[in-house]
Every structure is written in structure tokens, then in C-alpha cells.
Amino acid sequence: QVQLVESGGGLAQAGGSLRLSCAASGNISHIATMEWYHQAPGKQRDLVASITSGGVTDYADSVKGRFTISRDDAKSTMYLQMNNLKPEDTGIFYCKVDITWRVGLTFRRGDYWGQGTQVTVSS
Q: What is the mean pLDDT of the segment spanning 93-99?
């Protein structure tokens, strides 16, 4: 099976920085698109950044110029560098990864979600 483990959340002041990590482990054959989602208190979960297996990135308007998504395929890990944090960035950040994994002699593909990591930005 596959596991995703997130880390790097915490408390920051407005204007500060945090770096989130999302590490995949298991019988992984291939990792396709990797994504970060943000869920503010009482609101829906929104896509904020994505990166394809070819390294093409995309960002929500709310984080463009402040957040940078990256990946290290050798480590099966994705990162989100968050700079110039704002109080509205407060919430839980989730990673979602499109993974193909081995099951015996076969392969399966699906989306896995991380457990979420809390980010709190004070003004």
C-alpha cells in the first residue's frame, strides 16, 4: 500500500514563511500530479498549487508570487514553500497525490490524501 505523511505546519507571523512537505512511501511505481489544498476554518477545501510529473506548476491566484511548489521524485516528496504568509492562509493544508503502486504482479492507480497539517498565521 501507500502512505502520505505531511509535515512542516505550525505557527507563523504575517509576512513570515513556512515550508510544508508531503512524503509518499510504499510500493510506488510512479507519481503523477501532486497537489496542495487549503481548507480555511469553516470553508471548503480549495486547490492552491499543483505540479505535474514533468514539473509544470500551477497556482491559485491567492498564492501566486508567494508560494512555490516543488517535488523531489528521488525522495517521492513534494514541498510547498510559503512566503509572505497572510492571516487568510490559516487553515489545514492537505496534499493529494496521483500514485501508481505495485500489488504483486499488477499495478493500481489512485489518489491518496495526506493527513493534513495545520498552519496558523497571526497578524
A: 98
Grid coordinates of 62? 491567492
Query: How would you class 51 by CB atoms within 10 Å of its CB: exposed for 0-12, middle for 13-18, buried for 19 or more?
Result: buried
Residue 114 clears pLDDT 90, i.e. is over it: yes
Pick from 109, 117, 100, 110: which is nearest to 37 by CA?
Answer: 117
**Closest to 78 (Cα-Cα) out of 94, 59, 62:** 94
- Give the span between the Cα atoms of 40 and 28, in whole angstroms: 31
Sign of CA dihedral 101, 73, 94, 49: negative
* Residue range 66-88, pLDDT digits in tens: 999 999 999 999 999 999 999 99
The four Cα atoms 110, 108, 71, 12 give a dihedral, to 10 degrees, of 40
- Residue 1 above 90 pLDDT? no
